[in-house]
Give the backbone structure.
Amino acid sequence: MDQVSDNLLAKLNGLVEQFDELESKLSDPKVAADHEQVRQLSVKRAAIAGIVDRYNQYQSLDQEINEVRQIIDESDDADLVDLARGELPDLRSQADELIEAIASELVTADDAAVGSVIVELRSASGGDEAALWAGDLLQMYQKLAQRKNWQLEVLEFTPGEVGGVRHSTVSINGDRVWQQLGYEAGVHCVKRVPSTEAQGRVHTSTATVAVLPEPQELQVQLDESEVEIHITTAQGPGGQNVNKVATAVHLIHKPTSIEVRMQESKSQHQNRQKAWQLLRARVFDHHQQRQAAERAAD
C-alpha cells in the first residue's frame, strides 16, 4: 500500500530472505548433526517466523486490493464494480491493521532472536532469610524454564548457611528467553515471616538478579592474551580448600577488569569452559552498555 514506507518493506523483504536461508540451513544434513547449531538456528527462525507469516498475509491482501482496484477502474460490469467498491474499504482496513501489527512486532524482533541468557542471583540484605529468598527466586526460574521447555544449566551454586542460595549463576537457553527474562534484572524484595524467625516478626529481605544476553562466540571474540588465567584449588565458604586438585578457574579480562571465578565442577575443563562462557557474556554486556551510554550522550 502507498502509505507503507520503502524502508519497512525493505526490512521485511530482508527478513523473508533470512527466513528462507535459515530454513535451507536447517534442512542441511550436516547442520542437523550439530545439535547446538540447530538450536541456535531454530531460535532465530522462531523469532521471525510470525513476522514473515503476517507479511505473507499482507502481500496477499495487497495483491487482492490491487485486483479490486483494477476491476473498479476497468470493468464495464456496473454490478461487479459496485461489489468491488464495497469490498475495498474492508480489505484496506485488514491490510492496515496487519502492517501496524508487523511494524510493532519488529521493535522486539532483535530481542526475540536472543535465545540464551545468563542469570546471576545473589542474596542481599536480610541475612539467612535473604539467602532463602534468593533460593525461592532460583526455584521460580527453574520452574519457568521447565514450563517454557527452556534448557537451564547451573554454572555456579553457593548455598546459604540454613538453606537457599548465597550466589548462583545459571545459563538458560530457549525460544524468546531474553525477551521474557531481560526485565527480571534488578533488586527483588519480599516482606514475610521467615522460617528462621522464632517470634513471628515480619522481615524485609532482598536479592539481586542480573540477566546477561549470552553472545555467540562470533559476536564477541576475546583475545586470550588479554585474559589472565589462574588455576587454583576450589575453596569453601571459609576459604578452606575443598580438594587437593587444582580445578578452580579464575579469569581476569585486563581491558575491562572483569573477573570470573568458576569452581562448581570437579573437572578443570568444565570449569574453564563455563568461566569463558560467563566472561564472554559479561564483556559483551559491558560493551553493549557502553555503546548505549554513548548513543544517549549523542
Observations:
- The chain has a mean pLDDT of 84.
- The chain has three domains: 6-112, 114-213, 224-297.
- The first helix runs from residue 6 to 26.
